[in-house]
Design brief:
434 Repressor (Amino-terminal Domain), Arc Repressor Mutant, subunit A, 4 domains, 20 helices
Length: 492
């Protein structure tokens, strides 16, 4: 593996700083002794500058080490745990700057930590050696953390979308049609669009940008095409250059691409569903005394968007404008009787349900799954959308969630997809959502996965509670050990 230049600078800076501190001299004293300015030395120690040979010679002599050792990637015993981390390129791949952390700051914290933190650093290095096998999952996990940190609401992107509508003099209730979006791309950004049939190997692709031509899968629904076009406008409006040419993903090359694609997609959602208009619709929905699934289906039809775009847009506005910031968003895809959790986001903590190990079976009582089973049994055409809701109460947990789910066929593939947004039932939710006491709203006991569930009367169980049984056995052993120890002390 080739070590990134940034990591070479960071290693060099760490060594200079540690040697200086060991000698008990300040930056200004080192500057006086070497003839190198304080500002330049500061840049060296932060890993931002790598000095020329003559300056390295002077630094080595002043700090009492050889030139060869100073320029090598070797670190002394105290900093040795950082060596693997630096040489793995972990820091250059991990987008620390997204969270407002410079790599040099991160290393400085680790370098000055107690020696026992070396085990933690070693763990990071181990992750760095192995995570490249799952680099896509790594990047998307970081993106989720970024979204959750901001409660999935980004004011700058909202403003950009509103500015676009303003400069094109679009009224709030104006629905952007495909011809208008294509014209904007061509006239304003010199991108022409062609709807085409992708070859079988690429049938799951929604679009491909080839030069200044956007190829769109002709098998997409109208709402999907509108989203693709708005997303492409988002790339142009936000002046994004580092991006994937394909939608959906074929290859993930960097975190910048993942983040930029998210920004363009967020822009598209904000453009298609203006926040002021959607806020009023959500407020009207929550004020109803009874849950009305048809209200949401009509809303989906009114905005001419996919259920995923609609419910994901809910997740943008609920924390910001309704104070409902304990929520999750999930997407399940169903192919060949397999239920795969393909997208998830949790705001204000990890909620149930959430992703489990691959070999575990998600609870078949989740509405995200039962609505897919209903769609599979009854759907007659691609355009059909189901909408249902339930109050989920968890075994072995006091938490309750209002879960709203919508399901549809997943064009252009034969898969079915369900989207769900879950809101924790707390004082704020009870204040904002008037239909939570609707007696017609289904209340169902649910678990996490079959392997972890304590339910004894579950007819939907797909597997024995193996993980739960192991935990119970461990607890029993611990209790037996404590009892034995107590009896031994009393009899001594």
């Amino acid at each position: 593996m080739t070590v990134a230049k940034e990591n070479i600078r960071l290693t060099f800076g760490l060594k200079v700083k540690q040697l200086r501190q060991e000698k008990g001299i300040s930056l200004s004293e080192l500057a006086h002794q070497t003839g190198i300015s304080v500002s330049y030395l500061n840049e060296i120690e932060k890993g931002k500058k790598y000095p020329q040979t003559e300056k390295i010679v002077v630094l080595a002599e002043t700090l009492g080490v050889s030139y060869d050792w100073l320029v090598s990637l070797k670190l002394n015993k105290k900093l040795a745990p950082l060596a693997d981390l630096l040489q793995s390129n972990f820091l250059s791949e991990f987008p620390l700057e997204v969270f407002g952390i410079e790599p040099a700051q991160f290393l400085d914290i680790l370098a000055n930590a107690p020696e026992k933190v070396g085990a933690f650093i070693g763990t990071l290095a181990e992750i760095a050696r192995s995570y490249d096998m799952q680099i896509e999952e790594f990047y998307f996990s970081v993106l989720r953390s970024y979204q959750e940190m901001y409660e999935n609401y980004f004011e700058d992107l909202e403003q950009e979308a509103q500015h676009f509508r303003d400069i094109h003099k679009l009224k709030e209730k104006t629905i952007l049609d495909i011809d208008f979006l294509k014209e904007v791309l061509l006239k304003d950004y010199h991108v022409q669009t062609i709807e085409t049939e992708f070859e079988p190997a690429l049938k799951s692709l929604r679009s491909l940008l080839k030069g200044n031509t956007l190829l769109i899968n002709q098998n997409l629904s109208v709402s999907q095409k509108r989203f693709v076009l708005c997303r492409e406008i988002g790339f142009a409006v936000l002046k994004i250059k580092k991006r994937s040419a394909t939608f959906s993903w074929v290859e993930v090359r960097s975190f910048d691409e993942v983040l930029n694609n998210f920004k363009a997609s967020y822009f598209a959602g904000a453009l298609l569903l203006p926040q002021n208009m959607l806020f009023n619709d959500l407020k009207g929905f929550f004020k109803q005394k009874q849950f009305d699934a048809d209200y949401l289906i009509r809303l989906n039809t009114q905005y001419q968007v996919t259920p995923e775009t609609l419910l994901y847009r809910f997740s943008n506005l609920l924390p910001k404008y309704f104070g409902l910031n304990e929520l999750f968003f999930l997407r399940f895809d169903n192919t060949d009787k397999q239920f795969n959790l393909t997208k998830e986001m949790h705001i204000s903590g990890l909620h149930n349900p959430h992703a489990s190990a691959l070999e575990e079976h998600y609870c078949r009582r989740w509405i995200s799954i039962t609505i897919l089973e209903d769609l599979q049994k009854h759907h007659k055409k691609d355009a059909e959308i189901l909408c249902k809701a339930q109050i989920s109460e968890y075994y072995d947990s006091p938490n309750r969630y209002f879960v709203l789910a919508m399901a549809r066929s997943l064009s252009p593939t034969p898969a079915l997809s369900s989207l769900a947004i879950g809101i924790k039932v707390n004082e704020q939710a009870e204040k904002m959502i008037h239909f939570l006491e609707d007696k017609n709203l289904t209340v169902k006991k649910v678990g996490e996965t079959c392997q972890r569930c304590s339910a004894t009367d579950c007819t939907e169980r797909m597997s024995e509670p193996s993980i739960l049984l192991k935990k119970q056995a461990k607890k029993a052993r611990k209790q037996a050990l404590e009892k034995l120890t107590t009896n031994h002390i009393e009899n001594a």
